[in-house]
Amino acid sequence: MMIALLLGGLVLTYYGPARNSLIIDNQNHQALPKADSLDYHLIMADLAWQRQLWSQAAVHYAVVAQKTQKAEFALMATSAALEAQILPLARQNAELWANLEPENAKPQALTAALYIAEYNEESAYIYLNQLVDTLPHEALPHLLMIHESLEDPKEQNIFFSLLQRITTTHENQPSIWFVLARQAQSLQYDALALQATNQALLLQPDWVSAIALKVQLLYQAGEKIAARDYLEVVTQRLPEEVDLHFIYTEIKNEVAAEAL
């Protein structure tokens, strides 16, 4: 799993400590609070973050998150653990964050992705399904981010299986079918990818990304005439989509040249 991609796409950028009164001034030392107190862990976490000591920051923010049950600290613990590439600690705190903010798409998607990295399909399903069920209009970019972050073939197959399961209960959501198609294409399940793309287009016929994916799949399968004929109809319906017109012209010319 590409940690940098998860950090860039799913974890909010840290905006700096908001607890300046607790940060130790190097020239005016105050006594550290009692070890294992909330203030102690908060000070140590902030100092470690400022110095980019990610593993230390993750451990201390995780303690603070557990003690306070506040999403902001669970986020910080997750982010630091991802920077340190301590995936079990990242998943633990992402899950806490997701449970504290069930209507926030980011922690739901991130928790699912980290469970996929642990090959734990059932736990990943809980958070993916919650994302799609609770936040259907926000799900697409997060599902695509997971799709793009997976490199391990086993992770890719788990995500494919999860998407198949989710389409059985959310069959009227075109975004799920589209991501399923993209994932199937990555796994070279081209026939299944085309079926899923067609389902997405049945629900949302003018979705340009899905149209382009269908044309790509037809073209790669050697079905250039079918791709041309489909685009001929689509471009008449969507005259403003310049990119689709360009692709149509290119394929039409290629088919004509091959017929000579």
Task: Describe what this molecule looks like in 3D.
This protein has 14 helices and no strands. The termini are far apart. Residues 12-29 have low confidence and may be disordered. The chain has helices at 3-10, 38-50, 54-68, 71-83, 87-100, 105-117, 121-134, 139-149, 153-169, 174-186, 190-203, 208-220, 224-237, 242-259. The longest helix has 18 residues, at 242-259. It is elongated and about 85 Å long. The protein has 260 residues and is mainly α. Helix content is 73%, strand content 0%. The protein has a domain at 1-101.
How far apart, in Å, are the first and last alpha carbons? 48 Å
Number of strands: 0
Note the quaternary state here.
Answer: single chain
The coarse silhouette is elongated
Question: What keywords describe this structure?
Answer:
260 residues, mainly alpha, 14 helices
Question: What topology emerges from the helices and strands here?
Answer:
Elements: H1 3-10, H2 38-50, H3 54-68, H4 71-83, H5 87-100, H6 105-117, H7 121-134, H8 139-149, H9 153-169, H10 174-186, H11 190-203, H12 208-220, H13 224-237, H14 242-259
Structure described in brief:
This protein is mostly helical and 260 residues long. It is built from 14 helices and no strands.
